[in-house]
Write a structure and sequence with these properties.
This protein has 222 residues and is of the alpha/beta class. The protein contains 8 helices and 10 strands. The protein has a 6-stranded parallel beta sheet. Strands 1-4-2-3 form a 4-stranded mixed beta sheet. Helix 5 runs parallel beside helix 8. The protein is elongated, with a radius of gyration of 19 Å.
Length: 222
Amino acid sequence: MLLEGFHAVKHALRFGGDVRPLLTTSLPGLLKLAESHAPDLLDELTTRATEVDEVEFKKTVGRTHPTGVAGFAERPDLPFDRNAPIVLLDNPRNLGNFGAAIRVAAGLDAGGVLSIGDVDPWHPNVLRGSAGLHFALPVARTESLDLNRELIAFDADGELLKGTIPDDAVLAFGSERHGLSERVRHRADRIVSLPMRDKVSSYNLTTSVAMALYHWVIHRAS
């Protein structure tokens, strides 16, 4: 998988990705970034990185990047075995939002991210949106809703979310344009809504995922 930019490479390395090759157009510039943004990786970046000129960088990566950093790594095969909710994205369409939702799920320590639909969750644009945090939790596409977990679907017309979210739940979110599919609605054990001011129609996908997982975190902690 192509990792574009310093932050994608940084996260892949932090979560066990074997990034080879790791290219930079300026080794001093890369190490300066590491000193300020990832001092824990300074030694590893020093030994792994190969400095190339901009022509070679663009030839290998396919484009330039503002940080002058990129790498390649094998896709991890992480099991969905954490004691934490799994995020299910129902036919997501916006690749940047898809990646940002994975980034939020990783930050709030979700059990993984599954998607339904024809978009590859490992598409380069999705990986770019997650800043490499695909490596921090399981990410996969599925066609089955036979998940053996309570499925809680989020929709503006559902009952207001209250109480706790079980650690073993699946939290389903529809696409921003079309919302939840009938298939997911039919399978859902509960359809709930997030708090929202009157006359505001919706949140974007990433915000919804963040609010739901934050609700899980704070009520779990209490």
